[in-house]
Amino acid sequence: MAEPGIRITARKIAVGREIPESVPEERVSLYRWLGQRLTGTEVATPTTERTVYVRPEELYSPMSESRDYLARALPADEGPHLLIVDMGDNPYQLLGEPLLYDVARLTGEWFKAHPQRSLVITVPIMPSESSTFWIELRSLESTDGPSRLLLVLANDGRREVIRGQGPDPGKVFATEYKGLRARLAPERSPLSAKIVRRLGHYGVSRRRPGDFCRRYFFHVENAVPEISRLAGSWLERVIVPWAAAEDTRLFLLSRDDQMGLHEAIAGIAAARGCGFGRCDREGRIFDATGTRPLHADEIDGTVVPFFSVVDRTRTYEGIVDTLRGQGVRLAPRAWAVLITDSSSQLTLAKSSLPVYSEASRERSMKRREDCEQCAIGLPHTDPLRDRGHTLRSYDVWDIFLRSRWGSEKNTPPPFGHRFHYAPDLESVFAEHGNWLATKIMSLFETLGVPPGVVIVCPDEPPIKTLVARLSDLMGDRPMVITIPGEVLDHRTDPEHDETQMVLDKAHGQLWQKQLSHLKGRGDPVVLLDEFRASGTTARTMVDVLDHWGIEPRAYVPVIDFSEEQDLDGLPVHSLYRIRAARSTR
């Protein structure tokens, strides 16, 4: 298959995504490497200008329904051509039978249409032998063309050659491909990106209610994938070998006031065929629903405790003592997502049931008589009911007064003004972005906005920092469109035709392609910004969207200095509102 002048086209399929994203240069390099290895000759840079986006509703429609999400992206020219259809970045569970069937059918039709066409399909793992994916592709084994190649390639380097001569049958190709693919795999979110430090006024009882107050409460509900990965790895590495030596089954026990740990540990238990139960704050054991108490004789195996947050050594030891008092056998180790007092880590490591934690955070306490919030009469906040989207004045100003201040960095349009003196919101969002992101998520839930929301925001560092935190917590589901400053810095007045002039200058940029893709689709769109003063930036974003016929559902400024309740009829939902005039210079 060493034909000169062979053209290579790559089409990356992104499942569940709503709008286009650029294909990174590193990915293009992988396609080029693959083309060279498969054709045996030097090749030009593969064409990758269009990523194929399969919307959620397209995944589960009947297989007989005609769809063109892939067909419209296939190259139509004749001559020697290698097509790489890349599905390798998608979780396999999203590649349902309708999608696998359609990819095989549509690419197979493209393959048959010309005798000099070759096809490579990459997948995260090989589909089941019973899949209609294989039935469609294997029907192409006898197609004409001496140098045609039809190959299916998994991320681990395994391959199925259906037609033609594939790469070398040894381990060299598989090892190289697996290594290249692994380096390009989407980076796993670190656990730290999912731990939320909520600000509030939290009462702590040691002898009587309200003895102490804490400023922070740590929340891990959004870290289910990370908890599953880390807890599962620890269990496999530490406990499973011990259980095998002891010839005992395992019963996984989750201790959590939130839902994140329960969900993760229940999934691990189901995957391993273990029993699963919940533990309350007193150490009593309940069934998987948390409603029916379990007695020791109902538990088959050795209990492995998992904790979301270990707060105090005394509380932890009390739970362990209660578990032992119920007559259950405990594993030699326990596991925790988080310990909130690093000074107790050594003590816990030497406990009668040593606990291993993935992270530690400081959460210092104050006596009630020394608490500033108690002094001004602020009530205690409930750590498990912080579901509203608005911010308390105390929290906002505590954050602001602890941050750097200076002249506003992001210059408004030429006809606008800037703040002479303002907090550095980029550093604020870097430190508190996870918490603020949960407020925005709570607002989205109230508004009925789905996880696949499209967020449109200025291309500015502060708001992009916050959006990054939001994407982490929402599992990268939101699609983000950033509009450049050179577009937002112009007054988009239709009478002066500046809108079209500015858009013409930016023709072909990614954000324009993304908005063009959204045109007429009715996807949920929300405008997000760091603050609203005059409202000029927000109105410009609305005008830009209107150019593509896109109507946003809401405008969400973190801080709202305006007296207007809406934005020319568009609902405004700010996290914090205060009256402040922008000064001029």
Q: Strand order within the widest sheet?
A: 2-1-3-4-5-6
Beta content: 15-25%
Question: Could you say what the CATH topology of the largest domain is called?
Answer: Rossmann fold
**Share of residues in helices:** 25-40%
CATH hierarchy class name of the largest domain:
Alpha Beta
Shape: flat
Number of helices: 17
Distance between the termini: 68 Å
**Poorly predicted residue ranges:** 62-66
Gyration radius, in Å: 28 Å
Structural class: alpha/beta
Largest sheet: 6 strands, mixed
Instruction: Please tell me the total number of domains.
Output: 3
Taking all residues together, what is the mean pLDDT?
81
CATH architecture call of the largest domain:
3-Layer(aba) Sandwich
Structure explained in plain terms:
There is one protein chain. With 585 residues, the protein is α/β, with parallel strands linked by helices. It has 17 helices and 24 strands. Helix 3 links the parallel strand 3 (81-86) and strand 4. The longest helix has 23 residues, at 224-246.
